[in-house]
Design goal:
The protein is mainly α. The termini are far apart. It is elongated, with a radius of gyration of 39 Å. Helices cover 81% and strands 0% of the residues. Helix 31 runs antiparallel to helix 32.
């Protein structure tokens, strides 16, 4: 018999095969009863054994808990639920406490030795008359899983979430009992004391059964053997003699056949089969295997003992050889793992994403030979680690590895569920990569993400997989929202509208009543898309979108609390702050100041969770957003309060740039450079003399830094915004500078504004178009008064035309703050034109 791994559920089958009885029958039940009796009598005294069994239970549960945590982390765009996070934390605490108790050499006998192991054994050896080994294994596994689930729920004080229950039960892969079996087997391989205690009960019962069987063999009447031999086919006898099977071996086989069944014809059939097997053994031993001396030696020795009729000795030789082979295979596997990991490190040093993914896949295969589900689970864990590294730390190489892993998982996906899941994994990695990367590479990654999520929706339909369909819709909308931010004009607005529609689709399944956590996440994401739409859209429509965004965020925060979901809470707070900031910019007077102050407070809330040490990328993002709100407040406020807010804004931008570097996060670096320049520009405008001019020159240089990344080709909307900002800084600097230098700077400002208007059209971006028209008019107005004469008149006419255009978008009803300022500027420009024309 081949050596088999011994687990709790394997003891009965091992005992049954050892005594040569039926697969499951009275012999197995009798031996099993001896096992139970032995354990009931001796377990309380075998503390080391008990401790190791308990450790195996808890370590197996910890592996399941880690898989659960990894699954929650892998869920895209904060897909995990608050209840599951809370339960996961409770389980981890329970495991840690139990293991700590065991490490202190104390044993919780009430938990371990009350009924848990014994009940599993009871199920194993008290089958119904028709039970099979598979029946017993299922009963034993179910009983063990029920016990660990009951214990976990009792400790946590609530029912298991369905995701964790499925992981424990091994739905679609390895479960708690599989990990428990691995832990026990590891102890059997490495802990001789454990192994001796574990096997003692079996061997004690088996010894008696074998002794009984031996007595039965000795008592077989010679006439029965003679009848069986006489009834054998002559050709069968001749074949046995030709193969070298001795007479005593045939007699021994006849005795065994008679003991197996009492029916003569059945015994004869068994004997003929046994002789055929003996012939095969003899022939294998004679011809060898061409597999090396070790195998050939085993075959020869087994054949020799078979010839002699010493089948037990032959069996022992074969079993011992298998044990030796398995040990050597394990050693070879360990060598392979060391070598594979060495090659993996070299691939990482070479920044070879494809090779890294390949070596990780091979390592998973070697660690879990023949277990496809475990291999895929291990490979997916590597995806999660790399995606998290890229998302949290902003590591683009890690994200590219995550993409390569997801590609390989998708290539080997079998079921529709696997394909849907793998499409989502690939889309998530691509979305994050596109979000982090600038230029065409970033846009390409985002477009691939959109296409991949579309593929997932073709596989996981709403009818067949409603929850997965809603998750994928949410993920698709996330990618479209980022694309909409990157693209200018109609394409950007179209992508944002598609994102809003996809979020609303997801909310048809993700309701607050049925899926509160997912509902909150999708609400928050919907708020993001609406907020961007509001920024892009002028007039009442833009303000309405912003107000809807604020409502969506506030809805989400009713479920997404700091206590239960701190990271999601901080993200939603950050997004709410951004929407409030934009509303504050649009609104005039006290309402605008109130919205801006709420934004500053809300960003401060988010930074309580988003720390530089734990979440550097999110910390930098929120620092940038806080600085934006402070900058706008500083622009609104006069005197020392305004300057204080502006200086706080500069400091927050500089904090963000410690994480947002051009080398690693070029798009974010350029964005923050643009924002820092805005604050410096405003400070320069406030200050007089050399200090003011220095601040303005720093602002101009900083805008030009940003434009190295924000190009018209790669990031047209951002390019236009930075061009407009640069124009404002140049305009103010030109006002401060005398003579030809000042006029040159003002002309540079006009050029920058006109560049921006190539992208900021009234049709596509009416609010931005109107703002830029106003700024262009300011530059023309200053130039007109500075140069005088015909050129001055032309410049003032251009200014008046631009002011009037801006007022067709910014009206007193839709944007009173802007309308009032532009109206004042228009009056001044007309008066200046009248003076010049009157002078002519």
């Amino acid at each position: 018999m081949l050596a088999e791994a011994v687990t709790l559920i394997g003891m009965a089958s091992f005992a049954a095969s050892a005594i040569g009885s039926k697969a499951i029958g009275d012999g197995a039940a009798a031996v099993g009863q001896k096992i139970i009796t032995h354990f009931r009598e001796t377990l309380p005294g075998q503390q080391e054994f008990i401790r190791e069994i308990r450790k195996a239970q808890l370590n197996a549960l910890r592996q399941v808990a880690r898989r659960n945590d990894q699954a929650l982390k892998q869920l895209p765009s904060h897909e995990s639920a608050s209840e599951e996070h809370a339960f996961s934390a409770a389980v981890q605490s329970f495991i840690t406490a139990r293991l700590k108790t065991l490490s202190n050499k104390s044993i919780d006998f009430d938990v371990l030795t009350g009924d848990r192991i014994q009940d599993v054994l009871d199920f194993m050896v008290h089958p119904s008359p028709d039970a099979t080994l598979a029946d017993l294994q299922t009963l034993a596994r179910n009983r063990a899983e029920a016990a660990i689930i009951e214990e976990t729920e009792a400790d946590a004080g609530r029912a298991l979430p369905s995701r964790l229950r499925h992981l424990i039960e091994g739905t679609g892969g390895s479960g708690w009992y599989d990990f428990f079996s691995v832990e026990v087997n590891e102890q059997l391989k490495t802990n001789e004391r454990f192994k001796s205690v574990f096997l003692f009960a079996e061997l004690a019962g088996i010894k008696q059964e074998v002794k009984t069987v031996g007595a039965k063999i000795d008592s077989v009447p010679d006439e029965t053997v003679a009848k069986l031999l006489a009834a054998m086919d002559e050709r069968e006898k001749a074949s046995a003699r030709e193969a070298g099977v001795r007479e005593e071996a045939i007699i021994e086989l006849a005795r065994r056949a008679d003991l197996q069944v009492r029916d003569f014809d059945s015994a004869l059939s068994i004997l003929e089969d046994l002789i055929e097997t003996a012939i095969e053994v003899r022939q294998e031993g004679a011809r060898g295997s061409n597999l090396g001396d070790f195998v050939d030696d085993v075959l020869a020795r087994v054949a020799e003992k078979t010839d002699e009729g010493d089948f037990e000795a032959a069996r022992t030789i074969a079993d011992d050889a298998v044990v030796q082979w398995e040990r050597e295979q394990a050693e070879q596997a360990q060598k392979g793992l060391v070598l594979f990991r060495t090659s993996l490190r070299q691939a990482e040093l070479a920044l070879d994403t494809s090779s890294v993914a390949e070596w990780l896949a091979r390592i998973a295969e070697l660690e879990h030979p023949g277990d496809r589900a475990a291999q895929r689970a291990a490979f997916r864990e590597h995806w999660g680690a790399h995606e998290e590294d890229g998302r949290i730390r902003g590591n683009p190489f890690a994200l590219k590895v995550a993409v390569a892993i997801a590609d390989r998982l998708l290539e080997t996906a079998g079921t529709l569920k696997e394909k849907s899941d793998c499409c989502n994994l690939l889309g998530i990695a691509l979305k994050t990569l596109g979000e982090r990367a600038g230029g065409a590479d970033g846009v390409d990654a985002l477009n691939r993400a959109v296409d991949t999520f579309g593929d997932a929706l073709q596989v996981g339909t709403r009818a067949d997989m409603p929850a997965d369909w809603a998750m994928t819709k949410n993920n698709l909308a996330n990618a479209l929202s980022i694309l909409g931010q990157r693209a200018g004009g109609a394409d950007g607005i179209d992508a944002l509208n598609r994102a809003v529609a996809a979020y609303e689709d997801a909310l048809q399944i993700r309701t607050r009543a049925d899926m509160p956590a997912d509902w909150a996440i999708t609400k928050s994401n919907l708020g993001n898309a609406l907020s961007i739409l509001g920024e892009r859209t002028g007039g009442a429509d833009g303000i309405e979108a912003l107000k809807n965004a604020v409502v969506a965020y506030e809805d989400a925060l009713q479920v997404c609390t700091r206590a239960d979901m701190p990271a999601q809470w901080a993200g939603t707070k950050n997004s709410l702050g951004s929407a409030l900031k934009t509303l504050g910019e649009r609104a005039g007077g006290a309402d605008g100041i109130e919205a801006l102050n709420r934004a500053v407070d809300t960003f401060g809330d988010a930074l309580q969770v988003y720390t530089r040490a734990d979440m550097p990328a999110d910390w930098a993002m929120t620092k940038n957003n806080l600085a934006n709100a402070l900058k706008t407040l500083g622009e609104r406020a006069g005197g020392a309060n305004g300057n204080d807010a502006l200086n706080r804004a500069v400091k927050a931008y500089e904090d963000a740039l410690q994480i947002y570097t051009r080398a690693h996060m070029p798009a974010d670096w350029a964005m923050t450079k643009n924002n820092l320049a805005n604050a410096l520009k405003t400070l320069g405008g406030r200050a007089g003399g050399a200090d003011g001019n220095d601040a303005l020159k720093n602002a101009v240089d900083t805008y030009e830094d940003a434009l190295q990344i924000r190009t018209r080709v790669d990031m047209p909307a951002d390019w236009a915004m930075t061009k407009s900002n640069l124009g404002n800084a140049l305009k103010t600097l030109g006002q401060r500078t005398d003579g030809a230098d000042g006029i040159d700077v003002l002309n540079r400002a006009v050029t920058a504004f006109e560049d921006a208007l190539q992208i900021r059209t009234r049709a596509d971006m009416p609010a931005d178009w109107a703002l830029t028209k106003n700024n262009l008019a300011n530059a023309f107005s200053i130039l007109g008064e500075r140069v005088g004469g015909a050129d001055g008149i032309d410049s003032l006419k251009n200014a008046i035309s631009a002011y009037e255009g801006a007022l067709t978008v910014f009206t007193m009803e839709t944007a009173a703050h802007y309308a009032e300022g532009i109206g004042r500027n228009l009056v001044l420009a007309r008066a200046a034109l009248a003076r010049l024309q009157g002078g002519d």
